[in-house]
Amino acid sequence: MADGAERQHTRRRGAALEEAILRAAVEELTASGYAGLTMDKVAARAGTNKNALYRRWPHRLALGIAAYRRLATAVQPPDTGSLRGDVLALLHGANRHWSSPLGAILRELMAAAGGATELLAQLQDQSADATAAPWLTVLGRAVARGEAAPEALHPRVATVAVVLLRNEFVVRGVPSVPDEVLVEIVDDVYLPLVRGRGGPVRPV
Q1: In 10 A of CB 104, how many CB atoms?
Q2: Is the pLDDT of residue 74 over 90?
Q3: Torsion angle of the four alpha carbons 44, 46, 49, 51, in this order, in degrees rounded to the nearest 10
Q4: pLDDT digits (tens, 9 = 90+) for 16-44
Q5: Cβ atoms of residues 158 and 135 within 8 Å
Q6: What is the pTM of this model?
Q7: Is the torsion defined by CA of 14, 121, 166, 62 positive or negative?
Q8: Contact in structure between 78 and 160 (CB atoms under 8 Å)
Q9: Across the chain, how many H-helices and E-strands are there?
Q10: How far is CA 156 from each of CA 106, 107, 159, 160, 169, rounded to the nearest angstrom?
Q11: Exposed, middle or buried, 196 (CB in 10 Å: 0-12/13-18/19+)?
Q12: How far apart are CA 53 and CA 44, in angstroms?
């Protein structure tokens, strides 16, 4: 790199420098996964020094999470006309994501975060509320259709299915979850839980 170009990079400040670092981190994460992500590589790719990274992210895990969030996209709630269909569609989408190369990065990051709840929350788009949003949407539609009682509309109830799916990857270490397990999660756990909240409702 020419000296002039290098000096131009080092003069960047604020949002422009942060954007360049995040872009470099995304490229490194995509190319090498979290295991290959280093502050040195990101700094070199961004044309800056490690101090600029550490001023914004205290360690490589925090930077890796920020980069992952740039890669991840928001989940659009399905609308199949039934709660069972919606939940299965959400689980199939989550299963595809967790089985993909991007999902492998997510699993690496979650393993590295361990019990650090603040960092884990950042992996779920800043908050548990954001994670629950599509699940609350489909459950809210089910309540409106009379498939579920209003008492079922609770974040912990809404997200039970995806938490169980996540455990298959994180705890059991499976590369992908078979369809029959997804059906079991929905039919044996999720729907009975929803039916058990509140008064009688029509079958879901």
Answers
A1: 15
A2: no
A3: -130
A4: 899 999 999 999 999 999 999 999 999 99
A5: yes
A6: 0.69
A7: positive
A8: no
A9: 13, 0
A10: 22, 22, 6, 6, 20
A11: exposed
A12: 11
